[in-house]
Amino acid sequence: MTQLRWLSAGESHGPELVATVEGIPAGMPLLAEDIDEDLARRQRGYGRGGRMKIETDRVRLVAGVRGGETLGGPIAMVIENRDHASWAGRMGPEPFPEPPEALTRPRPGHADLAGGLKYARRDLRDVLERASARETAARVAVGGVCRKLLRSVGVEVFAHVLSIGPVASPTSAASGGGELPLTELRERARASDLACVDAVAAQAMRDAIREAAHRGDTLGGVFEVIATGLPPGLGSHVQWDRKLDGRLAQALMSIQAIKGVEIGIGFEAARISGSEVHDPIAYDQGAHAFTRPSNRAGGLEGGITNGMPLICRAAMKPIATLKRALPSVDVRTKEQFDAAFERSDVCAVAAASVVGEAMVAITLAAALLEKFGGDSLTELSRNVDSYLQQVRSY
Ligand SMILES: Cc1cc2nc3c(=O)[nH]c(=O)nc-3n(C[C@H](O)[C@H](O)[C@H](O)COP(=O)(O)O)c2cc1C
Ligand SMILES: C=C(O[C@@H]1CC(C(=O)O)=C[C@@H](OP(=O)(O)O)[C@H]1O)C(=O)O
């Protein structure tokens, strides 16, 4: 068994973000540009704030890769924070020449107050810098490495936006929106600035975001992550922490501002009968494979992949930093004030969907390595092929 481990470090306006990932087999081709494309997609999306005009995220591979191939050791990556240049004397590890002005008016919905109380920080910037979703750039870098591994065994992960505020796209893979083949869904999502596959819905979403911005308000939404090409048998029913649905939920829920996760049709399954929920089983003699005419389970039964595409959804709450700020209290004076506002995204659901892809890719890569092991890519591929042969002759 190979264990995938990873960590990120870095503050939003510090010098750089750092990510380390260990457990990737040796001999996997890996270039910075494999990851940069995802980093660029994470920066997109109608409704993002001024910060995204400053950053042009690129990864620098600093360990674990030689001559374009992984070595089997920890891979370390760095992403520069260009905005750091504007924070001289206020951010960075060295003592400041003068104490910077403290941020003392916590924003409802952000980590400011809870983190300030927990870590006994009087300047709430000490909390928000790490709580910020700037950190998700590091996650996307780790996800890019994992995506490369998954691709080598035929697994693709992609996401699309289902709704922004009250505006919904008519297409959902989980609800049988499979009139669109999944490859087409992926291409359309990648071509849209909102990762929405329906052009009419995307325009209504843009309008909703623009109107929210005019009101000084913000919007959340829902995105769906789909993984194709998965072998049956990732995850396990035998112990609580090995169930893949639970692990995916934790991974997606850990993304800043994600407040709900569904697998397949999710909460909808609780409202209808069993006969309308469960996917009948058939057998394709030619392909020597079990098939399903529907995929309401979203590719998971008993916490184990069943060979159908994996479908997860995540709900993002609206951005907490409001131009028309909500009432708050100054933590120093205890007087009532409006919460702090400098600048902010109005809506970041499309960006979060790219982070969702990364978190799902990381979780699937971990499950793949646990099942098939392998210190080299050759060994991993051989193990996968041998298992697929076993499944075909079951
Ligand atoms: C891609 C992305 C961008 C975000 N941008 C902002 C932002 O500009 N302003 C803000 O207040 N919150 C933003 N958030 C949400 C906060 O990071 C999040 O609400 C905060 O860390 C508190 O965590 P919680 O919402 O999970 O409790 C963003 C989240 C994501 C995923
Ligand atoms: C920097 C990113 O997102 C940031 C996430 C974020 C937050 O509070 O989560 C607040 C904003 O940062 P700033 O206060 O510098 O404008 C976003 O821009 C990014 O996604 O790369």
UniProtKB/TrEMBL annotation:
Tell me the residue numbers annotated for binding FMN.
R130, A131, S132, Q256, A257, G302, K317, P318, I319, A320, T321, R343
Q: How is the cofactor bound?
A: Reduced FMN (FMNH(2)).
Cofactor(s) essential for the protein: FMNH2
InterPro entries with a match to the protein in the record = Chorismate_synth (IPR000453), Chorismate_synth_AroC_sf (IPR035904), Chorismate_synthase_CS (IPR020541)
Q: In which pathway does it act?
A: Metabolic intermediate biosynthesis; chorismate biosynthesis; chorismate from D-erythrose 4-phosphate and phosphoenolpyruvate: step 7/7
The record lists NADP(+) as bound by R42, R48
Its keywords, alphabetically, are: Amino-acid biosynthesis, Aromatic amino acid biosynthesis, FAD, Flavoprotein, FMN, Lyase, NADP
Has keyword Transcription regulation?
no
Q: What is this protein called?
A: Chorismate synthase
Origin species, per record, is Sorangium cellulosum (strain So ce56)
